[in-house]
Amino acid sequence: MNCPNCGTSNLDNASICVNCGRPLSGTGAVPPPPPPPQQSSYAPSQASYTPPTPGSAFGTQPPAQQIPNYLWQSIVVTLCCCLPFGIVAIIFAAQVNDKLRRGDVGGAMHASKQAKMWCLIALGCGLLVAVIYGLIGGAAFMQGIREGMANR
Amino acid sequence: MKAWRIGSLIAVAAAGAWILYMFPPGAGSFYPRCTFHALTGFLCPGCGTTHALHALVHGHVLAAFKYNPFLFAVMFGSVYASPSLLRGETPPLFMKPWFGWTSFAVVMGWWIGRNLFLT
């Protein structure tokens, strides 16, 4: 079937569009955003409470945007030299795209969480290695300054 | 919000470029080494990135390309992706079903290929 929003051709059993992420219901209707909260009567008495901005962060966002695939993050952490973990993250990121294509939203969410976890593991290892090298390099740098001052 | 993101991005990039310009990588430098290379002796997909960036900020594009051609693919990708990422969105290309496994194949191919043919 074709997406009612952008016209991209999708598999028949897909629940959301692979291109724009809009839901592919039978009627092709996009769910309307929730109505803005009524705040005229009680707003003056609760001046310190800020209600969430209606429509901007919730409701109007298409489902695919809520399932990030962490692909670019995976590639970046792979480049930053924590190799096995970055590759694992790329594999899960690719699975997110695959499962969204097949309409498997639950599986895509699971793969997304895995991709995020492996990205964070790779980033943590990379930062740890960078800090260790930074400490070693910094110590050598300070040693050089000390020796330079002693020789003067 | 957007101006704040762009501003911090430019500040970090400028600081990184200045450090890379002033301090050359190599023996005795403070830059982190590749763990994979230190453990196995093989090159990882990102090996040579620091040398390549150092060459690049000095204007030696060809030398940078020789250090790590894959970095150029990532840089073109970053230029394409940054407007979307600054808006807090995933770039449309990255959500294409074929793009995930293509990236995986390119990274693996580059990683194995550079160790087999380019050493």
Give an overview of the whole structure.
- The complex is a heterodimer of chains A (152) and B (119).
- In chain A, helix 2 runs antiparallel to helix 3.
- Chain A folds into 2 domains: 35 residues, no CATH class; 84 residues, no CATH class.
- With 152 residues, chain A is mainly alpha-helical.
- With 119 residues, chain B is mostly helical.
- Chain B contains 6 helices and no strands.
- In chain B, helix 1 packs across helix 3 and helix 3 packs antiparallel against helix 4.
- The model of chain B has no long low-confidence stretch (mean pLDDT 88).
- Classes of the chains: A mainly alpha (152), B mainly alpha (119).
- At the A-B interface, helix 2, helix 3 and helix 4 of A face helix 2, helix 5 and helix 6 of B.
Short description:
The complex is a heterodimer of chains A (about 150) and B (about 120). Chain A is mainly α.
What sequence of helices (H) and strands (E) makes up the elements of chain B? Answer: HHHHHH
Judged by helices, strands and strand pairing, the structural class of chain A is: mainly alpha
Enumerate the spans of chain B where pLDDT stays under 50 for 5 or more consecutive residues: none
- Overall pLDDT metric of chain A: 73
Return residue spans of chain A where pLDDT drops below 50 for at least 5 consecutive residues: 27-31, 40-47, 53-62
Query: What's the average pLDDT of chain B?
Result: 88
How many structural domains does the protein architecture of chain B include?
1
